[in-house]
Fold this sequence. Notes:
- 28% of the residues lie in helices and 23% in strands.
- Strands 6-5-4-1-15-16 form a six-stranded mixed β-sheet. The chain has a six-stranded mixed β-sheet with strand order 7-8-9-12-14-13, with no helix packed on it.
- The chain has helices spanning 21-38, 57-72, 87-91, 94-97, 134-138, 149-158, 273-276, 279-282, 305-310, 324-328, 343-355, 361-378, and strands at residues 2-6, 14-15, 18-19, 42-46, 76-80, 102-104, 115-119, 122-128, 167-173, 175-176, 194-195, 205-209, 215-216, 222-224, 241-247, 253-259, 266-271, 291-296, 315-321.
- The longest helix is centred in the first third of the chain and has 18 residues, at 21-38.
- It is globular, with a radius of gyration of 23 Å.
- The model has no long low-confidence stretch (mean pLDDT 90).
- It is of the alpha/beta class.
Amino acid sequence: xxxxxxSDLHLGKRVSExxxxxxxxxxxxxxxxxxxxxxxxxxxxAGDIYDKAVPSAEAVSxxxxxxCSLAKRGLKLFIVSGNHDSPERIAFGARIFExxxxxxxxxxxxxxxxxxxxxxxGEIFFYLLPFVKPAHVRRFFPDEKIESYTDALRCAVSHMxxxxxxxxxxxxxxxxxxxxxxxxxEISVGGLDNVDASVFAPFDYVALxxxxxxxxxxxxxxxxxxxxxxxSFSEAKDQxxxxxxxxxxxxxxSVKTADLIPRYDMxxxxxxxxxxxxxxxxxxxxxxxxxxxxxxxxxxxIPDAVGKLRTIYHRLMKLDYDNARTRLNAPVAGDxxxxxxxxxELFSDFYRLQxxxxxxxxxxxxxxxxxxxxxxxxx
Length: 379
């Protein structure tokens, strides 16, 4: 069975006040072209269908058009809710849609019943797991020790009644430890939402959503397909794609990518004003129509720089300066290891930096208790 793995459409998203709806409509049509060219039999949407839990009417209409186009092709569709989605809204009508081959993740209730499909090699079992936090899972398994996201996912998987002799596919929307992040994602500070990849060992393929850059997680069969569009300048150098997965007999899985070319690309440009406005600098690059972030290196500010630059770079999103003045006023550099530290360790480092001394034992105990209380309430 050949599948197209997609995720993180973020329909309705705005980037620097630019609506992405027209770009999203364009890229969805490109995706339909890839689906046709690959003769895919199914499509996976691994969460964050929308950018907001209550999406705009335009975003809902765009997704409706996309689903109708897929349904007309007779494809099987597997859709889970992400952290940006409302699980109740994504699950709406699930029992009705199943008759048309559209399978939606339920609101998590402690049981994930597989979707059973048949191909030339036998049955394939698809498990659709919506985005979950430890509190979601703990509610249904109060007697199990669930203190972390890894604990929660391990518990959820252990109650799926998996038969590892069968071909099993998991669709999920979580952050796997070690995955490369970008600025457009919502990730908990200190890595609290990390999930160890070992949790997914029983599955033949794990179609992940949540991380916006396409990448494998220790195995080509545990994979983020990434967003179909660039949603931050940290993704400017990414090559966006869809992931094409083909399941053969048990143990035979092939994975490849099909590149996506956006309507308008995203570019970071750097240099003095006199240079970046030279025709020889920007012509034949496509930057004039790209979404751009320009960093000027002039020592003096250019009057009405945004207005002047937009006569050349029509979709200028961000302008800043890098010179002696801005470097002097720059904030203190962050800790490169911060993402691997706990909230307590981050606060402890901040306190020491601000006060030139560590917290007292009493302050340390108080902060640990407070952080644990806040974290528990957030679950």
